[in-house]
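Request: When convenient, would you put together a sequence paired with its structure tokens?
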Amino acid sequence: ETGTGTPITFTGGSLGALTVVSGGLVERRWDGTVMRSRPLRARRSVGFGLGHVHDVGNPSTAPAVSVHAY
């Protein structure tokens, strides 16, 4: 649904990854200075290290499904 997503998440001392199963999402991540955005398409996985700060949202009206592991 348009406008749905995760709240801003701080991974702290955990590593993490997410995979977009279907649809498309946008990840906004903190680079230490500003929030940067990147599109995430279906069948794409991204990993992140300790202290990663991000949120993931669906800017589209099409459904999207993702799996997150920390």
Summary: The first strand starts at residue 9 and ends at 10. The chain has a mean pLDDT of 89. DSSP finds no helices and seven strands in the chain. Strands lie at 9-10, 16-22, 24-30, 35-41, 44-48, 53-57, 65-69.
